[in-house]
Design brief:
The protein is of the alpha/beta class. It has helices spanning 2-22, 26-32, 44-58, 118-128, 155-163, 180-185, 204-215, 236-244, 257-265, 267-276; strands at residues 71-76, 79-84, 94-98, 103-109, 131-136, 171-178, 192-196, 219-222, 249-256. It has a nine-stranded mixed sheet with strand order 1-2-3-5-4-6-9-7-8, with helices on both faces.
């Protein structure tokens, strides 16, 4: 029995090591386990508490006051990850805050299940860019009021407003994906990335970003000059940042289906994308 127990322990350890090497990052898997099939819009008091919690994280203070909001925290080095605790009936998203030195950059994936691959890409971009914060949706956009990109007052919009505070002045990069039908209709390819700031007036910083992506080998199309759609002009996060003042900057990246698949499996290409942000 002792030999069997030792063999079982050894095999379990080997499987765990294999999962860590070839599978998802353990922190990413922990966040994924916080997904839910329910959503409830935050109340005014909860929105105020969420805004305060986001403000703490964006200032490098880590995860504060989340337990009172029904969430649990996992600390790993200079990262504090947040997910909803069971029974998971809120669907307000999963987050990682970096407490050490970091860029004033927030990476968001609001539709990680319907825009396949964007959650995985966002996690790696967060890591490679040394971003201050990562935000992943935890409820499907099809649930009532759960669309983190397009519903005013949703948690991602609250995060956007705090990111635009003059003391934070963060860049918010939001990842989306389009499929074959959209590519065909608007003259795009599966390898295209449509670059937008959520308005029909690309600013100089956005033009520099698009140029950097082109030089890095990407089929980058500047909205609306080189691609008529999709541009995120109804994006609630961009609107919240605009309402908050002149600080902060919003970038909306729409990635073709083939490009998303390539970025998930090609670390060098994803690194090239991160270098342009």
């Amino acid at each position: 029995m002792r030999i069997d127990a030792r063999v079982t322990l050894l095999l379990a350890t080997m499987l765990l090591m294999t999962g860590c090497i070839h599978g998802r990052d353990p922190l990413q898997s922990w966040l994924q386990a916080g997904r839910t099939d329910r959503y409830r819009a935050p109340s005014p008091a909860e929105s105020a508490a969420l805004a305060t919690a986001f403000a703490h994280g964006l200032r490098g203070a880590g995860a504060h006051d989340w337990h009172a909001l029904g969430h649990e925290v996992l600390a790993a080095g200079d990262e504090h990850a947040v997910r909803e605790a069971a029974p998971r009936e809120l669907g307000w998203g999963g987050y990682v805050f970096r407490t050490g030195a970091a860029r004033p950059l927030v990476v968001q994936a609001p539709h990680s299940e319907s825009d396949r691959g964007t959650g995985d890409i966002a996690f790696v971009l967060y890591r490679q860019s040394n971003a201050r914060m990562l935000a992943l949706n935890s409820a499907h956009r099809s649930l009532d009021a759960a669309d983190q990109a397009n519903v005013p007052g949703a948690p991602f919009a609250l995060l956007g407003r705090e990111s635009a505070h003059p003391e934070i002045d963060a860049l918010v990069v939001q990842l989306h994906g389009f499929g074959v039908a959209t590519a065909t209709r608007y003259g795009l390819s599966g390898q295209s990335v449509v670059v937008s700031n959520g308005t029909r007036s690309p600013d100089p910083a956005l033009q520099l970003l698009a140029g950097c992506l082109v030089r890095a080998g990407f089929d980058a199309r500047l909205f609306p000059v080189e691609a008529p759609y999709p541009g995120g002009t109804r994006n609630a996060v961009r609107a919240a940042m605009a309402d908050a003042g002149s600080a902060g900057r919003f970038v909306h990246l729409e990635l073709g289906e083939e490009l998303r698949a390539d970025l998930v499996r090609d670390a060098d290409r994803l690194r090239s994308l991160a270098a342009c942000l």
